[in-house]
Amino acid sequence: MNRRGEPKTPMEEHTSFIPKVLQKEAELDARLQAAQAEAEQIVASARYEARRYVEEFEAQLPDLIRERFEAEMAHAEAEAQRLIAEGEKQADALKQQARARLDLAVREILHAVLPIPLDDQEKAHDHEDE
After folding, report:
1. What pLDDT, on the 0 to 100 scale, is given for residue 42?
2. What's the rounded Cα separation, in Å, for the pair 30 and 27?
């Protein structure tokens, strides 16, 4: 039945759902706008949080760089000390080798100049002192 109480015409039958469709469309449009507004709010909030995080990181960056530099310097100093100690050991070993060679060279020279062996020469000095 139509508004006048008469049976609906075929045209009225087919067009009677239009107000319901328009109402549903308006409801969906309102929900879409609300969802878009919520999405924009979420994006704005995420941008704010990201910006804040970046600012905090940038504020901490000098400290992080300094800490990393200090750690690298401590490591480099420890390595330098190790290398210095190793070099000193090698230098001491080379000095001992040089002294041993010098002693040997002196013995060879003395043996070439003096006909008696070095041990016998030391014994001869001991007899002269008596």
Report:
1. 96
2. 5
Identify whether 2 is part of a domain: no
* Whole-angstrom distance, CA of residue 78 vs CA of residue 8: 99
Q: How far apart are CA 52 and CA 55, in angstroms?
A: 5
Domain count, the chain: 1
Give the span between the Cα atoms of 56 and 62, in whole angstroms: 11
Contact 25, 33 (CB under 8 A): no
Say how far apart CA 31 and CA 24 lie, in whole Å.
Answer: 10
Residue 31 in tokens = 């929900």
Tokens of 28: 């969906």
**17-27 confidence digits (pLDDT tens):** 788 888 999 99
Residues 6+ apart with CB under 8 A from 114: 121
- Provide the domain limits for residue 16: 10-129
CB 114 within 8 A of CB 121: yes
